[in-house]
Amino acid sequence: MSDSFYSPFINKEGRKLTIAEICFSDVEVMVAKQLEEGYQLEFKREVSSTVKRKIPNIIASFANEMGGWLIFGVDEDDYSINLLEKKEYELFIHNMLKDVTNPIPRIFTRFLSPEHTTEYGVFVIWIPEGLYPPYMSYGKVYRRIGSGTSPISEIDDRYHLDRLYQKSKDRMMRLEAFCTKELSIYNRKGLTHGEGYVHYGMCNMYVIPIYDLYLLEHMDEDKLKQYILSKSNEPKAYPMYEEIEMNVHLPFVKASYSAESIIFRNTDVIDSYDKTVAWEQFVNGAAKFHIPIPYVEELDEVKSVLQECVPSYRSAAIFDQFQYVDGHQFLTLLLSCLGEYIECMTQLNAELEDMIVVIDLENVRNDVLYFNHGAYKGFLREEGLVFSDKKHYRFNKSFRAMKLKEKNGESLFQYVDYIINAFGLSKNKALHFLMQSFYQSK
Length: 442
Fold this sequence. Notes:
The chain is an alpha+beta fold. It is built from 10 helices and 23 strands. It has helices at residues 24-32, 49-64, 89-100, 158-178, 221-232, 299-309, 327-347, 374-383, 409-416, 427-441; strands at 41-44, 68-72, 84-85, 101-102, 108-112, 120-127, 136-137, 140-145, 148-152, 188-191, 197-199, 202-209, 236-239, 245-248, 254-258, 261-265, 278-282, 287-292, 323-326, 355-362, 367-370, 393-395, 401-402. Strands 12, 15, 16, 17, 18, 20, 22 and 23 form an 8-stranded antiparallel β-sheet that branches. Strands 1, 2, 3, 5 and 6 form a 5-stranded mixed β-sheet that branches. A hairpin with a 2-residue loop joins strand 8 and strand 9. Helix 7 crosses helix 9 (409-416). The longest helix is centred in the middle third of the chain and has 21 residues, at 158-178. The protein is elongated and about 80 Å long. The two termini are 42 Å apart.
């Protein structure tokens, strides 16, 4: 996460504006203040042929350092506004970056027009600090020198090159350090033959914004706590295809403060916090969800189904070697947590353009993702019993960023669908089973 988010656009309350929040009048205010170019800000009067070739170098240099803003339509000499004709600037720049940069830096763009016209305006690019430096342009690594861009010579500037590689490693280490379960949340059953507890599976989901969302600038801690509690108690309905709705309701009823975070739990029963979903919300927008995996309680019924649909096993006793996850409940819990987070952050006007979602599965070897309906029984007859082969999984090890946007149930599912493969199922098959579960519940 970047805590050094810079913006040349400041509202009347002194809050830094993101690229999604700015309008043309904010550019006028910036110019009126005579804000000069600098380490994280560069102006270009026009998009000339000479400037076009320099654009990848400038963007790569911002990505290599602390991020920055590149604004076309502001004169770099006298800082006056020079309106540009509206064109496909974004498409052109994206294509150029694909051709000449490696890795490709992330950029966010806006074309801002004054009130009297939509055909002219200024073109603004925000480049966040890159996750994977060094970024190369035309085969060279660029860095910021004051308000300009300069290539790094591998021989003469080895220090600067090493610093970029180290920055990338340090960032990965910070992300790894964040993705740990520190709360006292377990998924366990009673003592077994006096030897201790049986530990069942846990799912830990970590949502990390690339840059600080500054939640406390929208409301104080008390209001933020009450806001999330209130929003979570509102039943949600996400449309799916075939006119089916995914109805979910995961109310969080208990909240307590921790260092730089608020911890929400979906039960107020004090039982060593076993089998409660925990949501730890940090004030910078990051969140951790700890979800005990729910298991089917009616095992006799499950075994009866398996004996009927998977007769090829020599002995029914083999079914005792597996644990059966309630597929409908488990996937609904995952989608509920992510949906609640997206809705709450969106309502706070937080931008979810660059978000990292990491999911860990713990203690899931020999776990079966089980659904109680005819479609799943048909699958058992055709494919047999499939299950998790490994004890632990981590998804998105490279910390790839994505855009989180709540549209419908299918959109939510695509953020977590890759965990389905851990249980031996294809993504499409699991979505079909989930749909059938909601169809039966109508």
